Amino acid sequence: MVISTTNQDFDQDLHSTFASRYVRTSLPRFKMPDQSIPKDAAYQIISDELMLDGNPRLNLASFVTTWMEPECDKLIMSSINKNYVDMDEYPVTTELQNRCVNMIAHLFHAPVGDDDTAVGVGTVGSSEAIMLAGLAFKRKWQAKRKSLGKTYDKPNIVTGSNVQVCWEKFARYFEVDLKEVKLKEGYYVMDPVKAVEMVDENTICVAAILGSTMTGEFEDVKLLNDLLMEKNKETGWDTPIHVDAASGGFVAPFLYPDLKWDFRLPLVKSINVSGHKYGLVYAGVGWVVWRTKEDLPDELVFHINYLGSDQPTFTLNFSKGSSQIIAQYYQFIRLGFEGYKDIMMNCSENTRSLKEGLQKTGRFDIISKDIGVPLLAFSLKDSSRYTVFDISESLRRFGWIVPAYTMPPDAQHISVLRVVIREDFSRSLADRLIADIVKVVNELEAAQPTKTAISVHNGKVSEDSVREMQKGITKYWRSVVHGKKTSSVC
Ligand SMILES: *Cc1c(COP(=O)(O)O)cnc(C)c1O
């Protein structure tokens, strides 16, 4: 990097500080530069480069919050310099986390009295929450096996093959075998019957998902609970359930209060939820709550004594920001049950309107269910001429980020597009999206082979070879997406 020497004499107050005045060569990418640069130049250069990122508000691939009220933004900025782990110095922040845990535990019907403290912790996201919950199950299972004088070196966990990648991480990092119930065409969640069949004496828990990442569908936790109760009775085991409610935990209590998926079911011992998804906070907060104290082995909890009271901590990381916890508390008291319900209903209505718009085109099959997380997963009725990957690519032109991906085993032959409907995705944006999808589909349908592009290679090419080329591109796309189970969806 070269700092142009002339500008050092510039009066920075008088002259524009545009990046090109300071930096005349490409920016350093591998080695830290030798010299410093002015702060305004650093700011300008970096924000210029960031302009090439997608627009988060148009990123329909993600469940993660992209808009909060300006008042909350203010709270976030004013606590950006607080390390959450300094509980001695910031006891109020710790208190806010505990209040959030209590509120979530009550929302999920944990058996705690109105004034009792619930057992749970704030995390960086559901992934950390799931690592902690998984560890608790593993330890409990090991302790029991030890006490019975049985082997405890082959723990496994039963899930659907639609699990989010963090479960595979948990399995690999903490040496637990992942036993996956395969999906099939037309059925894209874990089948509770098959899951219970897979349970054996080494199963530390069955993980059910409330809001499958692929389709937003809720798995039938009630049926799983009932079948597993029967099996436990027959075998004498006590295989528990964890619910991964990363996306659905802040949807179901408001939209489907009668749906039994939480601690109302006796075998559900822990639940995780992403505060940064429908908890409506920016990226960086998740939660895990346990049914009772007994469900979290004490050996995993570290106790910090501060201000005369005992603060148990159970996290993978030590230092982290406080802002997200504070923002979560803001949302809880600002919105209340009423506010969350209103937002979820609005998301749900926008989903319905988008669904109707897509159905009207006559080109798509809707894969997602009406009951579930507000998202639309849809596939093409006819993929012979162009695919969902082509649509996804073409939509980028308008700024939309709509991921296309193949379903997990054994439904890999199905490819879908997925649109997540968040609070900030308004009805008018939904209307625009439909209009743009229609435009893209019409173009792809009318697309005569792109002769100009081909003629670069050799002046005259048959339509067949153009089609072959397009197929080749699609195949390549698929091979990239394949293997990366969840591709760009999160
Ligand atoms: C998003 C998601 C996760 C991972 O959550 P993070 O909060 O992003 O770590 C886990 N499980 C499911 C079902 C999810 O949707």
Whole-number total of structural domains: 3
Number of strands: 13
Strand fraction: 5-15%
Largest sheet: 7 strands, mixed
- Alpha-carbon distance between the termini? 36 Å
CATH topology of the largest domain: Aspartate Aminotransferase, domain 2
Strand order of the largest sheet: 1-7-6-5-4-2-3
Structural class: alpha/beta
Low-confidence stretches: 451-457, 483-487
CATH architecture of the largest domain: 3-Layer(aba) Sandwich
Identify the CATH homologous superfamily of the largest domain: Type I PLP-dependent aspartate aminotransferase-like (Major domain)
CATH level-1 class of the largest domain: Alpha Beta
Helix content: 25-40%
Name the shape in a single word. Answer: globular
Hetero groups? pyridoxal-5'-phosphate
